[in-house]
Amino acid sequence: MPGWHSSPDRVQAVRRAVRVSVAASAGFYTARYLLDEPAVALYALFAPIALGILSQIPGGGRDRALVVLRVLPIAAALTALGTALAVGTLPAVAGMLLVGFVLAFGAVCGPAPAGVAPGLLLFYILACFPPYAPDTLPERLLGLTAGCLLLALCEWRLLPAPGDVGYRERVARALDTAGRAARAAAAAAARRIPRRPVSCAPPGRPCGCPGCRRPCGPPARAAPTGRWRTRDRRPGDCWTSSRAPPSKPLPRPPATRCRRTWSPGSPPSAP
């Protein structure tokens, strides 16, 4: 396929698939065929898939590994809750409603917490599946921990994802570009040099930033950067100086052409 290797999104998808496959395979085959623990193998296989494929974790390899380690206690708590509520259909459904609402409402904290919500919800769903086996909870937590640790190790060391440009850095670049354009415009005005508009296109808008990195949440740290998009909607449209005159003169306004081609008492000439 032409241009397949030049697509960054496809390359990152392949690298992520390799990391998740290595982590899931190492945990599953070790627990199933070496330790002969089916419950451990199941959760060691499921944890990298839930957090590596079904979750959108921002940042580079090191950041992704830290996020996996941070959500490990939450995933363990949801697994224990699902194991306990699997005793009957009504408790399982009530727990599903409660956990689903809490994880969905947690999206108001920003895109980053919303990225791991689908994976965390799946831990509760898997633990609620019959049969009701609370005695297998230690094996489930052991497999979950092993899968998360293997995934964090692969995210950190095996084909790590490159770090994306944060929104603060994008705003800093936009302000730097605007400052240079303003200085150039001031110098051109002092020397009476014609100017022309040039689109500098600095990546300052939130739409150019990955969704999980945008300052859209209510935390105090996101508020200052979030105000940037309300202060300046078009940071890329700036004026720069140009020593070269226009390639061709600008057309005269229609009123000027009429005055030059027609005078009172004479018929109008052809345009």
General description of the model:
This protein has 271 residues and is mainly α. It has two domains: 8-157, no CATH class; 167-243, no CATH class. 61% of the residues lie in helices and 4% in strands. The protein is built from ten helices and two strands, in the order H-H-H-H-H-H-H-E-H-H-E-H. It has helices spanning 8-34, 38-52, 61-85, 89-105, 111-128, 137-157, 167-190, 222-226, 228-231, 254-261, and strands at residues 195-199, 237-241. Strands 1-2 form a two-stranded antiparallel ribbon. Helix 1 runs antiparallel to helix 6, helix 2 packs antiparallel against helix 5 (111-128) and helix 2 (38-52) crosses helix 6. The two termini are 56 Å apart.
